[in-house]
What we know:
alpha+beta; Archaeosine Trna-guanine Transglycosylase, Chain: A, domain 4; Methane Monooxygenase Hydroxylase, Chain G, domain 1; 5 helices; 30% strand
Amino acid sequence: MKKLPLFPLPLVLFPGSxxxxxxxxxRYRRMVKELLADNGRFVVLQxxxxxxxxxxxETIGTLSKIIDWQPMQNQMIGIQVEGEQRAKISGVTVxxxxxxLGETIELHSDAxxxxxxYSAKLAKISTHLExxxxxxxxxxxxxxxxxxxxxxxxxxxxPFSGADKQRLLELNSSLQRLEMILSxxxxx
Length: 188
């Protein structure tokens, strides 16, 4: 277990996704500077209540790293963050400047799956996306060789609710994630 900085946001960041952020709070500017100095990681967590994200957030989020940054006006810092791995946090403490820190355990999804197990599910999702009247996906090519990455990419791109995205992030199985995506697509 590692104690890492926590960054609650009113969204879910999935592994493999990139998120641009503008950092303006003193505690998060300090966090960014420290992470850049030692190539560190932090955990992005979904805030349950965007108005009070300090005390009310999910315990499963995404280990993330800063992949680009630039100084901005008014001492703000623009960063690009990439999600790397699902993580569970516990033992949250608060630093003197208000930065949240949590004991972090990396969560690993299913491994050793066979691509043929997923091909039919991916084909159904692809067909549904191409035919859906409200979504603008065309000729979606889903790669059965990297189902976990595809399941995260779909969960990130399709306009599901924050609660549904959190449930998708919490699933340990790529097949279950794809099944839930297909089910949710029918409700959009």
